[in-house]
Amino acid sequence: MASSAPRGLRSDHVVTVGIALFSMLFGAGNLIIPPLLALQAGSATPVAMLGFLIAAIGLPVMGFIAVALAGTARELAGRVHPKFGEFFVAAVYLAIGPCLAIPRTSSTAFEMLVPLLPEGVSLGTARLAFAIGFFIIAFALTLCPGVITRVLGRITGPALIALIVLVVGAAVISPLGPAAAPQAPYDAGAAVQGFLTGYQTMDLLASLAFGIIIAETIHELGVTDDKRVAFEISRSGVIAGVLMAIIYCGLALAGMQLGTVMPDATNGAAILARSASMHFGLAGTVVVFAIFFLACMNVCIGLISCCARYFCETYVVEGGAEASEEAMRRPFAILAFVFAAFSCLLSNVGLDVILMFSVPMLNALYPVAIVLVLMGLVHGFCDAHPQVWVWVGGVVAVQSVITSVRDAFFAGAWLPFDVLPLADIGAAWAPVAVAAFVIGLLHSKFVAHSRS
């Protein structure tokens, strides 16, 4: 008798995991970019948003699928070389975790609280007290991954969506103004500029990082077959992507209506706050703070958890991912506490300094992540020509590091990459990747011919 098909998630579990994944991805940066894009794009917003969604949604969803097919982000990057995979994934977790994104969650949420504070309150003291409370809550919720998914998927995630729907719904029912004429750079090539703006969200790196906690959650829900886990991660990623797309469009609508009201706005948070206050008064300011607080808290919980789990499994606990939960519990809690405490410190002092180093790191990692994901989606072909992985991953990594260091510390210095197509939009890595792919393909064929 044929064996039964591997067990999958129930439909309600898929939705819960998808909302949890959305909650971990959708931070303050995701909130503030669409309103600003739409305000500047004006009547060209639909075209600009099309390009934005392709990059901001398409890349992360492809990242979820590529990691699911490979097993883990480290296994995906390890096809270049095991040491490369180890270094690259560790750098990704550090860059989007304690060195940048985790500290910024508290800082950003606090900035939205400032208008609600009484006059005369010391901002330094208030910021410290807020950060301590913020990270205590985040740390407490990271200690049980199953609880994370339930909290994010059933409580804070839906609450965040409901509050955003409230603000967007008010903009739909009672428009604040007509769309203005497109501003630069959206007045020419709105779709291309929208794509570049979506590219700059860098959510692809987060999609590589969050796979570890989503996979564990799916295991806890009773799915044990690796191929089925990969399939469920892909389904959850698509749900998260659809949710993000809908909310992005709603936020863009709210921003588009303020083009004639605040044409010189440069901050998406200010645009959202103005829209909410014009519709709801002081209550609107409270709603916007609640939106940012929930978005930042959700991302913070997810990042602390996945960073602690990755370093715990990779460097601390004997047996790695195969270790028992009992063996993992204490070292995981210690690492989660270290990341939370370190991030709390950085959110109050030294964040500008750490940004000076972490942003170039992000810029160096992102092109590598893109080419790894694209090759991961066609891994059958690339695995049949293994030198493709080595050439593309290695060459793009070198080019990205050199360019990022130049942009950060030697602005204006000339590099040979500057003459390549797409260099003017910061994508010189793309033709480099194509050339490396061709060389890797020829190298693989030469090696195969030599062995025959």
Quick take:
This protein is mainly alpha-helical and 452 residues long. The chain is built from 19 helices and no strands.
Description of the molecule:
The chain is globular. The chain is built from 19 helices and no strands. The longest helix has 35 residues. 77% of the residues lie in helices and 0% in strands. It has 2 domains: 343 residues, Amino acid/polyamine transporter I (Up-down Bundle); 75 residues, no CATH class. The protein has 452 residues and is an all-alpha fold.
- What radius of gyration results from the CA coordinates? 22 Å
Strand content: under 5%
The pLDDT mean sits at 86
Query: What letter string, H or E per element, gives the SSE order?
Result: HHHHHHHHHHHHHHHHHHH
Q: What level of helicity do the residues show?
A: over 70%
Give the overall shape, derived from the CA principal axes.
Answer: globular
> What is the CA–CA distance across the termini?
42 Å
CATH class of the largest domain: Mainly Alpha
State the CATH architecture of the largest domain. Up-down Bundle
Which assembly state applies to the chains in this document? single chain
Report the count of strand segments: 0
Q: Uncertain spans, ≥5 residues at pLDDT below 50?
A: none
Number of domains: 2
Per the CATH scheme, the topology name of the largest domain is: Amino acid/polyamine transporter I
For the largest beta-sheet, the strand count, sense and barrel status come to: none
Q: Give me the secondary-structure category.
A: mainly alpha
Total of helices: 19
